[in-house]
Amino acid sequence: MGTIKAGDVGKGTCLLIKDAPYIITEREFVNPGKGSAFVRIKAKNLRDGRTVQQVNKTHETLEEIEVETKTFQYLYVDDTSYVFMDIENYEQIHVPIQGMEEKKNFLLEGQNVKLLLWAETPIDIVLPYKMVFTVREAESGEKGDTVSGATKSVTVETGLRVKTPLFIKAGDRILINTESYEYVERVNS
Q1: What φ, ψ does residue 176 adopt, rounded to 5°?
Q2: Which carries the bigger pLDDT value, residue 99 or residue 166?
Q3: Distance (Å, whole) CA 81 – CA 69
């Protein structure tokens, strides 16, 4: 752990705020012209997912924490946690579901994913910005329905439902944005 000036923090910086690990999701530098400059930050608690907003003068010091990203294999989910295996030593690690409920929409058994670790404790599941999934179920698009931008619901292999163009059918592979939960494009295998 170390200190960092509030004026030097950026999106993605990990801080210790009220004895909990946070990652900065938004940062705005404000120089009012009269008075001293300050930084307005929004940060997400990496343990429970709650967000905080705070304002600091640029010269104030904040506590920066060291985090590590490591690859694990996703095994399964039980009542309280996601279970991963360390691909180096085959040890299993349990990551509490609380605060990360939405991650289940993007986890497939056997898939390698990155975990964010702080003091060797997993604090976040790091998903790629876009991921490819196979459509398991798709509503039928009405023949002749050519309304511009018409969509239908499909369900992918994780159970996630997304809106797609009418031409998407069961068995298609589609790219999904993991932040907005939106269809991006069909992927040719």
Answers
A1: -120, 135
A2: 166
A3: 19
